[in-house]
Each structure stands twice: as structure tokens, then as C-alpha cells.
Amino acid sequence: MLNLEIRDVTAIIRKASEIMNDNKELLCELDSQLGDGDLGITMAKGWAAAADAASSPDLKDIGKMLLVCGMKMAS
After folding, report:
1. End-to-end CA gap in the chain
2. CA–CA gap between residue 71 and residue 75 (Å, rounded)
3. Cα–Cα distance measured from residue 59 to residue 64, given in angstroms and rounded to the nearest whole number
4. Do 37 and 28 form a contact (C-beta atoms < 8 A)?
5. What are the angstrom distances between the C-alpha of 71 and each of 61, 64, 75?
6. Around 57, how many Cα atoms within 13 Å sit in the side-chain half-sphere?
7. Cβ neighbour number for residue 62 with a 10 Å cutoff
8. CA-CA distance, 22 to 62, in Å (whole number)?
9. What is the dihedral of CA 14, 28, 41, 53, to 10 degrees?
10. Cα angle value 38/66/23 (rounded, 5°)
11. 5-50 per-position pLDDT tens digit
């Protein structure tokens, strides 16, 4: 059985942020074929905000951390 700890979830969110940032131009290019072409920028900013929130030392509970990250992403 796999047990995730808060540091594991934080690392996953940071990695997702890094991946989104590395691929934001590709996402914008793909989005421009069907939309307004800003998906990469939006995703990079949202995941960066989530990664910043996940790094807060005040968050000790995974559920609360994910809630805060989601709220930061949405804003």
C-alpha cells in the first residue's frame, strides 16, 4: 500500500508546476487552434500559485493543503 505524506504531495504539485511552465508555449499553441491561445499562460500561473501555497509551513494536513492550492489556482 502506498502512503503519501504531505511532502510527497507538495513535491507532486511542484513538479506539475514545473511541467506546466516548461510546456506553456506548446499549450498556448495548441489552445490557439481552438481557443484564444492563453491556456499555457493560465496553467503556468495557476500551478505556480498552487506550488507556492503548497510550500506554506502552516499547512500540515493534505486535505487542507489541496483545498488551499485549489483556491489559489482558481484565483
Report:
1. 35
2. 6
3. 7
4. yes
5. 15, 11, 6
6. 0
7. 15
8. 26
9. -20
10. 30
11. 999 999 999 999 999 999 999 999 999 999 999 999 999 999 999 9
